[in-house]
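Note to self: the last two entries modelled the partners one at a time, which told us nothing about the interface. This time every component goes in together.
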Amino acid sequence: MSGIGDAADRNTDGVVAGAERTFRSLGRDLVPIGAVAVLLALLPIQFHDSRSMMTVIITGLLFMAYAVAFNVIFGSTVQLFLCVGALAGIGGFSAAILSERGGIPMLVCIVIGGVLAGLVGGLLSWIAVSRSLDVIFTGVVTLAFSLSFQSIILGRRDLTGGETGIVVEAGSDTVLGGKVGAYYVLLGVVVAYLVLFRLIQRSHVGWAFRALRNDEVAAELAGVDVTRYRVYAALVGSTMLGVAGSVFAFHRGFIGPSTYAFADVDVHVLVMLVFGGIGSLLAPVLGAVVFTILDEILISFAQLRVVLYGAVIIILFLGFRRGVIPTLESAYSRWRHRGEGA
Amino acid sequence: MTAVLLDGVVLGLQFGLLGVGLTLVYGLGGVLNLAHGQVAVLGAIVIARSMDAGMSTGVSIVFGLVAVGLLGLIVDLTLMRPVYRLRGESRVLLGLLLMLGVGTLIDGVLEWRYPIEALTLRVTGDPVSILGVRMSYGSIVASAIALVVGVALFAFLRFSTFGRATRSVIQDEEGARLCGVNPAVVRSTIFVMSGVLAGVVVITRSMTAPITVTSGFGLTIMALIVAVVGGLGSVSGAFVAGILLGVVNTVSAYTIGSYATTIILLTAAAVTIVLRPSGLFGDRT
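The predicted structure of the combined assembly is written out below.
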């Protein structure tokens, strides 16, 4: 897809310079993330006494975290993982089961949830890459995995509670128990993910990602180990999904089959990311904010939401494939260059 | 057990028809139609609404088939134009994502406007005895329709000039163009045919089980599994895979249970992709 990484390429000229300049450019790189963090941190001041609004913005943050993770996998290395929800669910369900049945401390459960999701995602990617599956077959295999996971959740009633789901109590008397506390924890997760995404973009791994995304064959010829970097991206992204999924499980106190269902997670994450601009740092933030607001406006027309998502997907891919952020950035840089030329 | 096997074949014939529609469109233009099942359900709802409005079953069915065919044509002429302008991986990706959007849109519209609508066609007649098993008249009619449509489609692709043109585009788009075949016309026709085939499937399905507005996603996934196991682009492969998976489906549902069945079918698709991406049979029709 054209223009996936234009935005990412602009900040890389500083990397090769001296340490001091690198440090300064790192600072400059982190400014947008800081700004986002401050703005989002102010939200609970407005909404802290409305439980329903807090639920809305917490869900918004969760999807932001999912979208950053998906951005690592799909945006960086064009692996169409149609199992965002399932990977988050592996994290969520294994953390919940370990905590409820095994009595293992919450933090350990979250770590294990993340690691398990990472391993599964890495394995899926390794299979896809080593059998050199193209984008469509990767999509079908991960979709099959998604739906199988859903069936396992429904079928293994003894472990997962089937359709009724399971209650997760361990989070209730921690910081995750309250709405405001959970909001800031998730905000911390999102900011950490964004910083990690930026650091990856700036490192040699980011160079490899861009190279293999622009032209896989050329990258391979230039000595980029395409297999290794694809699997890396899937490992990192899936771990992020698992951690976000299990943090949410401990906050919500209850998870069921629809918490991580394909129709409820994957489609939304895809729309959010594409809207913002695939591969661009802040795309998940913009996408999640815009669609959380839209969801809230449409709340009284709940059934219309599915119609809207369908229409938005079509319009976005038809006429707006680059996304909002890259379009704005290239408009801005054109405007600035014109200013310099005059 | 014979009854279970026969039920499997009945189901499998319909799976086959479902998969063929998907596989043809993919083979021709590289578009993985993730809205296939939703289009089919739209057809079912048109039929059900027409029958509610007092039209006869036959007229309603014609209505439904025309509606899905028309929808296929519109989608092909509008949404798919930019897709066909692309090449290689970006074409595949854009086609898949656009059809995912179309499927979501149809799902949303149907659930919004007609949340409780469902299509059940009652075919009345005495049960027929086959191999000592009494099969309901509905499944016999459904299988007969599926078989006739399947054979007709196969003969059409194999022996008619248009069928040859279609297969030539599947094999080599540029080569077909050089021989005077217009891929755009072939693609539009096949897109329409794929929609009509989906319509036929819901008609035959609704003779044994109701088609509801939420059936779409499941049908799409089933079509996908069948097409993948048969080899994307292979018509005969889709039919054989359909019957095979239909039998696997009923046998496993009968002996193990329905959750395990879903997993087995999905795993069959995933394993096929990983081990034999060209499908179980590997030939290209």
